[in-house]
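ugh finaly. both done.
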Amino acid sequence: MMRATMVRHPILSDSLIAEVASESCGATALFLGTVRSSNEGREVGGIEYSAYDEMAEREMGLILEEAGTKFGVEAAVIEHRVGELVPGDVSIGVVVAHHHRAPAMDALRYIVDETKARAPIWKLEHYADGSREWVGAGTSSVT
């Protein structure tokens, strides 16, 4: 089971884990990306994520398929939130189920890295000083 979805509601880790749970898998790896309160020395008050939903879901689905082939992943789910978020909010949740921990963690990193690099999702940071700046898509050195 593979699922990639753009969401406009809070991402709940328990729900993601339950979705991939299987007695045949000895490893479940979870990644939650959260909004930081600072970026490159600037205080962040919030982030606004926007995306081309259909294209982002299609690309994330391809990434999940690639992870399945490359790492033998049995099940994986990715949710990426769009809209306005504040520091501490979860912006992306990825969970991978596999028979063994090493490939589960390798697949998890692959999915997160490829999503950040390939999915048409944009991030507008809102700074405490009132300014705003688009971040990512080659505009930031933060990884």
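ok and the 2nd:
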Amino acid sequence: MNALETIFLGVIQGLTEFLPVSSSGHLVIFQHLLGFKGPELLLDCSLHLGTLLAVCAYLRSDLKQIAAALCRGDFKGPQASLFWMTVVGTLPAAFIGITFRDYIERLFASVTIVGAMLIVTGLMLALSGIFPAITGRQNRNFSGRPQVGLPAALAIGTAQGLAIVPGISRSGMTIVVGLICGLQRDLA
């Protein structure tokens, strides 16, 4: 892999990570189109680390509020609650990732699986568009629960774990499952 290919994949990662589409799936497809023989997991991890740093920079105000709340001993306020529910939501994702690691790694080599999972992501996003009508909440910006509870955190964490599969969007699954759990659209 040369520097131009690496930059190109970095641009693909940057363009797709913050949309409810699978950045991992798009990386698999473009690596295939560039003729790579196998998945470039180290490159993928490096690109996702860059994304994590960008997310932390973007959410720095929220992260500072959460850290300040925890440092002053506020373990029950809304910021601390979001922190604890994030920790709880990480548990199912970690379990799925660790338990099915070998199987999931093999999926990164299959463009067919990635394509099928991109379709699944599209269907889930379509579901989120019609979800308010299904539940009787006609306003697309319906007002749900303002905080993440334990059942929602576990459901979202499970969706995040399933989104390890390339082609399934982590952000898309978070939004869809959050809405299904009754969270406010912005919080989801």
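summary for the 2nd one i guess: The chain has nine helices and no strands.
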